[in-house]
Design goal:
The protein has 631 residues and is mainly β. It has helices spanning 3-13, 57-63, 68-72, 140-143, 213-216, 431-435; strands at 34-35, 43-44, 51-56, 78-82, 90-94, 102-106, 109-110, 129-136, 150-156, 165-174, 178-188, 192-203, 230-242, 248-265, 269-288, 291-312, 315-341, 344-359, 367-381, 384-395, 399-411, 417-427, 452-464, 468-485, 491-510, 513-526, 543-553, 556-565, 568-569, 577-578, 581-593, 596-603, 622-629. It contains six helices and 33 strands. It has a 22-stranded antiparallel beta barrel. It starts with a helix and ends with a strand. InterPro entries: Beta-barrel_TonB (IPR000531), Beta-barrel_TonB_sf (IPR036942), Plug_dom (IPR012910), Plug_dom_sf (IPR037066), TonB-dep_rcpt-like (IPR039426). It is found in: Cell outer membrane. Residues 46-151 form the TonB-dependent receptor plug domain.
């Protein structure tokens, strides 16, 4: 990508969190958005003392994303690697850390395969999402392993206290035979809320791998020109009740089952069936006026089965099973929030997590547990704000790990907030990293891997005014024993990696105009003194910029998104180069009757070819048309 393009984007992107969360009464609040992920307690974005972005349901309907990857691409610190079109495996790299260094929660429940360590973001239905909170930087002192690069929490839709039942429905058609439908009901009153929905998606897809992969010995390792179809069926529900004394009981459930075709072989399969399952319950009450207790329990499952059907080097294979990997996480937490004095809060608690894998592949170990105890102090003294946190984790495999964080903020009289923070984190290797058996006599795992550890420092300056926001965050993260794959795809520990970055956001609302922009400048480098010293870490772009522009014209809304990314590499040796690229998306909507709206989107308008994973195709120019009823 040309540096002049990034320079122009920089003028629009020197900024801080221009976030638009929903307040507890369901109304949009641009001045004091309420978030819970940064500290595990309800605070405003100004009090977070960390780099935070919040995406609301209003944003989702305005941007018209087809997938979670569409929604997150171009946000500060975010790099996406996708192995094909809709439904293909999606990896998210936050602030240059590994894709396994991002903790993803759905309504407070940790998700992700315990086999490969990745959350299946491609399987999460966008229509189920009410809000996403993205917290960048280490949060291991509150959440334990995996929160090295940050935390992303997805909140599903909740019913509103309107005193009645509200139906909703949407139907979408588009390029490559794309069809999506969703229907649900929601409602509630002063005490009760509920929401339930069913939906599905189909697309004929595109070829996942470009031709020549077999000869190049990369990506799919085969040439398969067929289109990779994708089917998904999903449902979600949540409901809760709040008593007059503040006691609250809530339940949430989400299930997403998909059938995704991909380029493969009789050894790896070319047709996968994957099921995501998330269920959780939360009880909160106050034994004393200064003491709030929250009990959480949940389970997430990632079940994956692969099959092969087709011709391979002239031999035809009828449909046959090639393997399965079923992973399960059981988790529970006990959190206590104690008000010590005005503007002083102490949080202490215990988390427990058990990971288990069942597979036709013989893993040496199939289960492990982790118990974490944590404490956090939040205090405000005049214009000064302090946050301190510490955590002790005991992992069945890797023993004890201590992590901590400290942050200080100063609120200037005219609005800007200066923050300085420091944090440590760790990440335990996955089951695949440690125990996946040799393939054809060739090792694919490394039982000698050590846990990854990190320390980060960050400085930020932010300001939020009535109609516009600005700011900037600079950080450095040093990772010891970073896990990376060598030329034979065997995981190894790099003694050291160093990541430096600068992130900006800028947004304003002026009359009927809304502009939101983001910029990331980053150096994610190998720093272990080996032959690859100074090379970029795989699949991370050093520079990205995104600008969203929308305007309301009566019942019409029109908008555009411009995104640009610099080059990146797919290997630690930096020999597999993927060039920089830029895309433009256009969108429009028309509210033609109360509760009814028609939406249109044209993505990648100029049909640019690009890769975010080496030799894997991405969607070219595509269109989508949606009819929505949501009173």
């Amino acid at each position: 990508m040309k540096k002049t393009t990034l320079a122009a984007a920089l003028l629009l992107s020197l900024a801080a969190p221009a976030v638009y969360a929903q307040s507890t009464n369901g109304q949009s609040d641009t001045l004091a958005p309420v978030i819970v992920t940064a500290t595990r307690t309800a605070i405003t974005a100004n009090e977070a003392l960390s780099s935070v972005t919040v995406i609301t349901r209003e944003d989702i309907e305005r941007l018209q994303p087809v997938s979670v990857a569409d929604l997150l691409t171009g946000l500060p610190g975010v790099s996406i690697g996708q192995t094909g079109g809709i439904g293909a495996q999606t990896s998210l790299y936050l602030r240059g850390t590994n894709a396994t260094h991002v903790l993803v929660l759905i309504d407070g429940v940790r998700i992700g395969s315990v086999s490969i360590g990745l959350p299946a973001l491609e399987q999460i239905p966008v229509n189920a999402i009410d809000r996403i909170e993205i917290v960048r930087g280490p949060r291991a002192s509150l959440y334990g392993s995996d929160a090295l690069g940050g935390v992303i929490q997805i909140f599903t839709k909740h019913g509103q206290p309107n005193g009645g039942i509200t139906p909703s429905v949407s139907v979408t058609g588009g390029s490559h035979d794309y069809v999506n439908g969703q229907a649900g009901v929601s409602g509630g009153d002063a005490h009760l809320w509920y929401n339930a929905s069913l939906g599905g998606t189909y697309t004929g897809g595109i070829p996942g791998c470009r031709m020549g992969a077999a000869e190049a010995g990369v990506a799919c390792f085969v040439d398969d020109p067929r289109n990779d179809a994708y089917r998904n069926w999903n449902g979600f529900a949540n409901f809760g009740y709040r008593w007059d004394n503040g006691t609250e009981l809530a339940f949430n459930w989400l299930r997403s089952k998909s059938n995704a075709e991909y380029a493969g072989s009789p050894y790896s399969g070319n047709d996968g069936i994957e099921e995501q399952y998330v269920a959780g319950a939360r009880l909160s009450f106050s034994p004393l006026s200064i003491w709030k207790v929250t009990l959480n329990a949940g389970q997430s499952r990632d079940d994956n089965a692969t099959f092969y059907n087709g011709s391979y080097y002239g031999q035809y294979y009828p449909r046959m099973a090639t393997g399965y990997f079923n992973s399960r996480r059981n988790q529970a937490s006990w959190q206590n929030d104690i008000t010590l004095a005005a503007n002083q809060l102490l949080t202490v608690g215990v988390d427990y997590q058990q990971e288990r894998i069942a597979s036709d592949t013989a893993f040496e170990q199939t289960t492990r547990g982790d118990t974490g105890t944590f404490a956090q102090y939040q205090g405000t003294f005049g214009r000064n704000e302090v946050q301190l946190s510490a955590r002790h984790d005991h992992n069945d495999q890797f023993g004890n790990h201590n992590t901590g964080a400290a942050a200080w903020g100063y609120h200037f009289e005219n609005g800007p907030v200066l923050s300085v923070s420091y944090g440590t984190a760790f990440h335990a290797p996955t089951f695949d990293d440690l125990y996946f058996p040799p393939f054809g006599g060739i090792p694919t795992a490394n039982p000698n891997l050590r846990p990854e550890t990190s320390h980060s420092i960050e400085v930020g300056l932010t300001q939020q005014l009535d109609h516009w926001n600005w700011g900037v965050n600079a950080y450095q993260t040093t990772i010891s024993n970073l896990i990376a794959f060598d030329s034979n795809y065997v995981p190894q520990n790099l003694s050291r990696a160093r990541i430096r970055g600068l992130e900006g956001q800028f947004g304003f609302n002026l009359d009927d105009w809304r502009v939101q922009s983001y910029l990331t400048l980053m150096q994610p480098k190998d720093d272990d003194g080996s032959a690859n010293n100074g090379n970029l870490l795989p699949r991370r772009a050093q520079r990205t910029a995104r600008v969203d522009i929308d305007r309301k014209l009566g019942q019409f809304n029109v908008g555009a998104t411009f995104f640009a990314a610099s080059k990146r590499y797919d290997d630690t040796a930096n020999t597999r180069r993927m060039g920089g690229y830029a895309t433009t998306d256009l969108r429009a909507s028309y509210a033609f009757a109360p509760g009814w709206q028609v939406e249109a989107k044209l993505a990648n308008v100029f049909d640019h070819n690009y890769e975010t994973a080496y030799y894997y195709n991405q969607l070219g120019r595509t269109w989508y048309l949606t009819l929505r009823y949501s009173p």
